[in-house]
Amino acid sequence: MVKEVYSSSDWCAWSESTAGIDPPIRFAVIGDPVEHSASPAMHNAALDKCGIAARYTRLHIHPAELPEAVKRLASNGLSGVNITIPHKAAALPLVDRVDPHAARIGAINTIAVEGNGLLGYNTDGPGLVRAIRAEFGVDLRDLRIMILGAGGGAGRAVAMQCAIENCERLVLVNRTAEKLTELVSAASLIFQSTRLIGPGQRVEVVPWDLEVLRFQLQQIDLVINCTPIGMKRSDPSPIPASILDPSLMVYDTIYTSERTRLMQAADEAGARSANGLWMLLYQGALAFEIWNTREAPIDAMRAALLARRG
Ligand code: NAP
């Protein structure tokens, strides 16, 4: 029987921990925490639908153990893994080759094992583009966007994707503002390279201060939460309803509940909102296609996610 979550000690004794499991575990998501991840449901449905004899599971790996854990991917017989909170940036230097899109982003969420080599990719940004189109019927390039938690692995991928899509304005917010110095330069370079740069600053860092955010939000169309605030039941909304305008679109990358705390704040303000489930779906479908070099069965994956939510 495949366990819900494997620990790092299981990973170090993988053949004993997984003895007798058939079909074998070939895919996993690595994170800390990782118990919440809906990726196994979605990927196992896709593997079944395509008749691929393999299973996908969760690996709980602490940050200090990540380099050793990544080294064991090929010898433990895995074909691919997803990388989630908080490992996306730390995993990038641990692979042998990085896809150019992921290199530009500076973080990876997908590793493919090819022979003894590891290839890193980032499907979070393209997943977000599809999710925003599906949820709100708009494209990132038309929007003024604020990202909360832009300094994390997901926040960085989302910010760079917004720049690549040439969004109208990008406002980056992070609890630790210093973490944004390099990102803001990288995003500015992308805007400059589009040659469509208009008057004024296209990308800006603002402090996580309620009054500053209230002012900034008056000139924003879409707010994206890339912090984990809201993953735990006891968490508040990362920003209060009182600073949200009814004209805003609010996207929470968290998908642990149908209506996250931030979505509840958006409801209170009369704003449209969505959780991160479709971003998870689309980034997962792209990862599946990298590993299996075939089209992902998106309907089966979507159905598995909806069934899990109940
Ligand atoms: P990460 O690399 O650990 O980054 C966390 C970010 O959140 C950092 O910017 C951090 O700021 C900020 N943060 C953490 N706690 C905070 C707090 N109490 N107050 C203010 N800011 C705080 O994690 P990640 O991999 O980017 O994941 C972040 C979230 O995105 C998770 O909830 C994850 O589920 C979600 N996500 C969803 C999808 C999807 O497909 N739906 C994909 C990717 C990620 P500091 O820099 O100051 O520490």
If you had to describe this structure to a student in words, what would you say it looks like?
With 310 residues, the chain is of the alpha/beta class. The protein contains 13 helices and 13 strands. It has a 7-stranded mixed β-sheet with strand order 1-3-2-4-6-7-5. Strands 10-9-8-11-12-13 form a 6-stranded parallel β-sheet, sandwiched between helices. The protein is globular and about 60 Å long. The mean pLDDT is 95. It binds NADP nicotinamide-adenine-dinucleotide phosphate. NADP nicotinamide-adenine-dinucleotide phosphate binds at residues 84-86, 88, 124, 127, 149, 151-155, 174-176, 179, 226-229, 231, 253-255, 276, 279-280, 283.
Instruction: State the low-pLDDT regions, or none.
Output: none
* Terminal-residue CA separation: 23 Å
Number of helices: 13
Average per-residue pLDDT, rounded, comes to 95
